[in-house]
Amino acid sequence: MRTSISPSTPPLSPATAALLSPAQTRERLPYAALVRELLLLLDDASVQVPPRLVQGLAGGGSLFVMPAIDARTAIAKLITFTPANAGRGQPAIQGDVLVFDVATGQRLLLLDGPTVTARRTAAVSVLAAQRLAPDTGGPLLIVGAGVQGHAHLEAFADVLKITDVMIASRSEVSAQALVQHARTLGLRAHVVDDANAALADCPLAVTCTPAHGVVLSALPGGRGFISAVGAFTPSMVELSPGLCRHVAAQGTVCLDTPDARHEAGDLLQAGLDTSRFATLAELVRAGTPQTAGPVLFKSCGWAGWDLAAARTALAAA
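^ thats the sequence. predicted structure below, dont judge the formating
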């Protein structure tokens, strides 16, 4: 395990300080570079990530306070999650990621929080697929056509070079919009009415819905990979208990971090003992794992992923 941070991180100076818009944040976080930085972070012994604070808000929303540090950089991610905004035409996630120089305490960057969240989450899914998926050729099934659906589409196309995509969503308008976006990227894409039926033809799948209920219950084939990112609390769920139990018995379940053991609603509601599942860091450090059977990657989020995004943005300055 290394004790220094990414060699790609440049010397820090007052000239790097910037307040970045969503578009500028996006430009600083190209997916290939972000995936590389995620790997470097997992091998950096100086990284420290305290437990995140989640404070309930009136009306059903939540305030998330998520710090993380390494030897040179400190971040604080401050975001709100407001599920009711889905019916108001407003984003469910809002906020910022503040980036500081450890040595001087100087603020270096203020990144757009929703953009960081979307892109680092998709990059983590790509990293998991690179290391765990038996078949990375696609087609890719995306269940959920919102912000995370867009991010995962772009990340899988950019890094894994998938060419075929199927989109399933409760909103026909959103699904068609994502299909059109996929086609502008040169991909073959179409809407599917039944995600469960489509799963049989898709060795790669991502569920990125608001996680109000089960959206995928079909059992993946022996070479299937599912990244489930929508549910990040014990009460949220996207995958059926039967699907989760099937993969746990016949294949591999991997968690993005140890915190997912008490946050992953999909697995907890399936009655699974989450303490027996390895994390992505553990599998990466062990080398390329030999997985047999289907793979379920359960992602709940972690400030360490945001720190990797901050490091990527600093390197791009």
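DSSP finds ten helices and 16 strands in the chain.
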